Amino acid sequence: MDQVRAPEVRRALEQICSKAHECAQIVKDLMDFAQPHPPKPSMTDLGALLAETRDVWLERSGLPASRIRVDVPDESQSTERPTLFVDRDQIRTVLDEVLENAVDAVAANEGCISILREADIPDPISAGRPAVPIEQALEQRSSRWVEITVRDTGCGMAPGVVQRVFDPFFSHRAAGRGRGLGLARAQRIVEAHGGRIWAVSQPGEGTDFHIVLPQAGDE
Question: Does residue 12 belong to any structural domain of this protein?
């Protein structure tokens, strides 16, 4: 009898262990969201950061290189390679959260994802960019800003979804595929840098995520 039940007990214990790890990760995610670490900004090469993010997601998603493209200025054009003054790891987290949604959006229709570095812009507040409350801003504000757009040609989102996409615990994915904290965390990180993030989308026409971040000064 023991020999018959042993495999069942082992499977049950493995499942318990797996669920315990899952619960521990949920608690960690909730604690990180409730008490986020303040950014530790440093000079960050935007082109290198975007290229690194693309390479990671090409491997992670299994998509061909033609379906995740990134606009990175040529190495020889060093003056066109802006340097950000940001916490590099935190901004990688922001890009990962946005790319995860983009990859999910293009999975069903063979769409493509483009990561674009838009022209330098003035302060996003005075420029009339969509504004949301800033919970924590860096003392050293930049006078110049860079806008990054992550554009996908996927399924798009309905207006009601776009309005809530950054709400904590809201997810438009199938049940069990997310806890609804990813984009809320991304928004909190961007705002902690004094920046802005917003989404523009239409059903069947894809989605653009716009991210405005401080560019390093001339000093």
Answer: yes
- Our CA dihedral for 187, 90, 209, 183, rounded to 10 degrees, sits at -50
Q: Rounded to two decimals, what is the model's pTM?
A: 0.75
Mean pLDDT of the chain, nearest integer? 78
Instruction: Report the pLDDT value the prediction gives residue 54, as an integer from 0 to 100.
Output: 93
Q: Which domain holds residue 22?
A: 1-35
User: What are the pLDDT digits (tens) for 92-149?
Assistant: 999 999 999 999 889 878 889 998 876 555 555 444 444 433 333 344 444 578 889 9
Examine residue 109 and state whether it is found in any structural domain, yes or no.
Answer: yes
Burial class from Cβ neighbours inside 10 Å (0-12, 13-18, 19+) for residue 178 reads: middle
Strand partners, 113: 68, 152
- For residue 64, the 8-state DSSP code is -
Q: Does residue 158 lie in a domain region? A: yes
> Is 142 a member of any domain?
yes
Q: Are 173 and 104 in contact (CB under 8 A)?
A: yes
